[in-house]
Amino acid sequence: KIEYAVYPDEDQLDSFLTGCLEEKHKRDHFTQLVGACLICVPDGMLKERLDPETLESLGLIKQAQQFNQKIVKIKTKLFYKQQKFNLLREENEGYAKLITELGQDLSGNLTSHLVLENIKSLIGCFNLDPNRVLDIILEVYECRWEQDEFFIPLIKSYMCEHQTLCHMLGFKFKFHQEPNGETPSSLYHIAAALLQHNLIALEDLYVHLLPLDSSIVEEHKREILEAKQIARKLTMVVVPSEKTEDKEKEKEKEEEKNEKPPDNQKLGLLEALLRIGDWQHAQSIMDQMPAFYATSHKAIAIALCQLLHLIVEPLYRRAAVPKGAKGGLMTPLRSKQAPRPAERFDDLSRDVFTMLCYLGPHLSHDPILFAKIVRLGKSFMKEFQSESRQDTKDRMDSLLSCFLSIADQVLLPSLSLMECNACMSEELWGFFKLFPYQHRYRLYGQWKNETYGNHPLLVKIKAQTVDRAKYIMKRLTKENVKPSGRQIGKLSHSNPTILFDYILSQIQWYDNLITPVVDSLKYLTSLNYDVLAYCIIEALANPEKEKMKHDDTTISSWLQSLASLCGAVFRKYPIELAGLLQYVTNQLKAGKSFDLLILKEVVQKMAGIEITDEMTVEQLEAMTGGEQLKAEGGYFGQIRNTKKSSQRLKDALLDHELALPLCLLMAQQRNGVVFSEGGEKHLKLVGKLYDQCHDTLVQFGGFLASNLSTEDYIKRVPSVDVLCNQFHTPHDAAFFLSRPMYAHQILSKYDELKKAEKGNRQQQKVHKYIAACEQIMAPVHEAVVSLHLPKVWDDLRPQFYATFWSLTMYDLAVPHNAYDREVNKLKMQIKAIDENTEMPLNKKKKEKERCTALQDKLQEEEKKQLEHVQRVLHRLKLEKDNWLLAKSTKNETITKFLQLCIFPRCVFSAIDAVYCARFVELVHQQKTPNFCTLLCYDRVFSDIIYTVASCTENESRRYGRFLCCMLETVTRWHSDRAIYEKECGNYPGFLTIFRASGFDGGNKADQLDYENFRHVVHKWHYKLTKASVHCLETGEYTHIRNILIVLTKILPWYPKVLNLGQALECRVHKICQEEKEKRPDLYALAMGYSGQLKGRKVHMVPENEFHQKEQPVRSATSGSLQNGPGNTGKPAVTDKSQAAQKAASKNSTAANKVSSSNGSSTPNSKEKEDKEKTTKEKKEKKEKNPGSTPEAKAGGKDKQKEEKPTDSKEKTPKADKDKRKDDKKEEKSKIDGKTAEKEWSKERDVSNDSKTKEGSKVEKSAGAGSMKSLVPRSEGVESDRGKTAPALVYLKKKTITSLTLTSFYGFSCFHCYTLGGAITHLLNEYKNTREQDGETSDLFCKQMHMINNAIISNRQHINENFIMLRSKMLIQEVVYICASLIEMIYWIYAFLIFSPFCSKL
């Protein structure tokens, strides 16, 4: 038994046999091996394969030579010997009778069997050649090719060998293969019929057909190459001379094509096979050719389409015929070998999907079949979506994949080849809209990026579409939108992806095309709109395009253009938004905020919600009203008819659950812009991205609040503690999202209570409203406790915190002027309509009805808001007593209020900026206990440098608007004594002494009087000037830009004092000169503000008119010190007169207050003597130095230098030397600190002993000191030598202790700048007076000891409470503050060591 592990091939076997023949021993082994195989290998196979010698040695033949001779004879007989017929014996009559027999009428009972018997008789009778008879039968069959049922059985019965029939057909095909020959279709038919009935084999017949397969492949490649060349020519810029040459070449090629090539017999046979329904043989032929080569011939494609018609007809009639449609019935194929018709959707996978894949884009030849396939797909999708059983749905998933493949490979490419067929586009959309947008966009992506490169025809179509699109876009203008739109529509029905890709590329370059393009898209189909949405998203997501300009400071113009197009297109046309919204969401999840610009534009255009910080006062006032007033007067462009578009946007957000995720992502991304994105980006760009993110959040939140129903909103937005603690949403954004929810809930509860107890009295309604508020807000009060440290709630009640964040301007005031303004506009419109004689009557009537209805709505809305505001104010009046606890200092309470409430919200939006200012005024008007209005305003106006520096561009606009509203209130109080007395005179916010028992409202002496309030307002103006000049002098882009924006916003109310305005004007003029070439945007801002400032000069007043001011006394060396906001190249601004004025004006009342609160025993007579002495000395000094008036002070730097030698004569050399030393120290401290000295109002006079023993008494005494410190004193200006300085007057009253200690125990870390200046000033005062008043110096030394202790304790306080520092403060600033404190300790110890009064301590 022999086993083979490896079977050798024929070449190996031949080499083996040759080797065996050559060597004797190997041959013997081989013979033995073959002999052993005789039991399992037939003899015939061995005789066929082995050589005669081997067969002879095996004994299978007798003699090898004899065997060879026999083989030769057989081959000669088989291949070379021709059968001889006795042609002379054949009679023509026999052939005539044969033709007659075959040509007779076959409609009767004549059968092929009877005819065959007659043919046999004729052959025998007339001695006919059987092969010639068969040839005649084929010829007759060819003439009567429709008689398949007769001739096929006849041939099947007549013939004996398939090869003979195949050779005859082959010779017939060969006969027609001449250069100009044409093969008749009947021959194709009989060949196809014989193939279908298996009378011949396709492999045998295929070799007789031309052209060869290799020729077909070469032709296909040549077609692809020609198509690409045509496409290249269409995209190239061609010179006119070259165009004529190309045209001549094209003509020559067309002439060559007109020379008819020989028929493609393989395609003819294929067509015949398809027409009779022989799909198997047809598929075999198509497999031999390149993809889609066969169906690219129209006849083949139509034949295949006809076969598909017959197969899908039963299923189409059952499941997909539209209502009311009839259609023509089709007769099925009679052949049993044809594919079976489809009865169910499962049957489509048998043959239909395969046939469609072979057909490819050439389904375009049969639009009816295209519509049938699409309708079948639509019907299947409805059945698939309605199917509830999981097993059936799993089985249908494969069919769903097949339909998707057909859509990708057949339907969309076929649509590209259909010329302007809008009906098919709409049919296809009816199918596609049942898919989710992810499936659709994937199909569009394949269609756009891959399909056009797979087919030569599609390559040409793409090039032609681009060429036509260029032609249209070159001529598109606003004037010819309609005709151009029709051309765009026609082009888009077939090839929307190519057209839109080119249009979008043009829009990215030329944004002025947006409007005409949007208007011209009105002739598109629904499918085209959906494709447009995909193309826009693809253009936005293009990784090859940079979303920043080359300077890295602004967003690219192409992105801005596409965003504008998105807003306009999605608003005007019914395009699905889900894909675009999901794209923006995905970008936010990836930490990219550039594309928020798209969402901003879409919401603005579709919902009519416009976000801008450049609102006018009238618009801002309208924004405080109801929704109708906002729509009419709150936006620059009144976007009407947004109801449908906003509904579409809302539905897209809710259906795909994108509303809350977008809000949360935007809220988180604000910080992500700074800390994640902003690392490598320019600061200017980071600010713009932050503003864009924030503005979009405000806009989007406003849209949700105004469009979502109460139930939808509450269901989707979680509580504020969940937003902050779980989703890490910033507090301002969390309350912004929750605020509409609270308003909805309160109103719903209020309506519920009203229905439960019917009462029409106003008082009952108010009580019910308050009850509704308590029920809804009680959980909120509990929730907000977790948002901050427990220490915060020692001063602010959670109720007050939640009330501040939950209310809006709509709740606080009714904008009557805005309502009246809009109503008057509508009345004017009605009047204009009446006067218009050209307007048709029906249109007049409609417009008047619209205006009247709008007018009624506005009036009703105003009435509704008025009732609401009254209820809210009543509620606040009842709540106010429990708002502020003030367990710590008043300063601490105000700090927390500003830090946690005012500052975060005033920069959130323009309307919130107004709200913050009005809320502060409301808290004051409500006479809220423990709220110091003066201290609040002082903290706002005296410390704006850091806030301004940390704002973005839009935030600085809002902050400026907030300051403007605050200044408006202050200016109103400042303008008239009667207003001040009415609104502030008897209010606790203007107390100068705080008692533990609270506000009694009866002691007029405790209130800040009108004149002192005017001094305070002047100090605030001075502080604003000083901060503004500091920001302008830094040279930092952000500082300069932001302060210019803030100054522009507060221009109506600041500056009011002439010399302060001059100082600002001088510095702004310098900015204009410096930034003209370097930073054009700063130059533009500065020039704009400078022009407006000059226009406001007529409203400015001198300082002595702004507040009562005595003629100032100026020290001899004051010219060398800083007297104003800037000390170089501009007029100096002095505040010394305020100190003298206040020291004099407050002496009469201050003594009693201080003695009662601080325990001082200084008599009133002593104070009067001091006052008279001071006044007398000032008059004498005025006579000596007439140049010390404000006009003389404005002389500038040169004049100050000229005055120095004269002034220095009045000082002793030693004093002068000391003075210059101190001046250097002051200048050094200013340079190190990078800021001007800051003077702050203080709140309590607390000492280490009284702090623990006498709480109420200390609070009372601290109040006196606090209010005294509100009166500004001279900064950095020394008193005359030998005179009683104003600082020492304060020192004798022990108010310096209140000033310094309150700065630290009240804990405002910025006071170190003020304290540094104060210590330097007091040291200088001590040097001038140490020889005259030992008692004062002794007291002064004790005060310095107390200051030293306060500094040390406060340094620890800063370290422990670093987290409580004011928001947006830089770490390096805190480090600098601590360093400044250590330096102060060094100054004090140096003073104490060298003091001659050390022995007394």
Automatic annotation (TrEMBL):
Disordered: region residues: 241-264, 1107-1282
Coiled-coil zones: 816-879
GO BP of this protein: mRNA export from nucleus; mRNA processing
Comp. bias (Polar residues): 1114-1125
Skewed-composition ranges (Basic and acidic residues): 242-263, 1165-1185, 1194-1260
Cell location: Nucleus
Protein name: THO complex subunit 2
Organism of origin: Cyprinus carpio (Common carp)
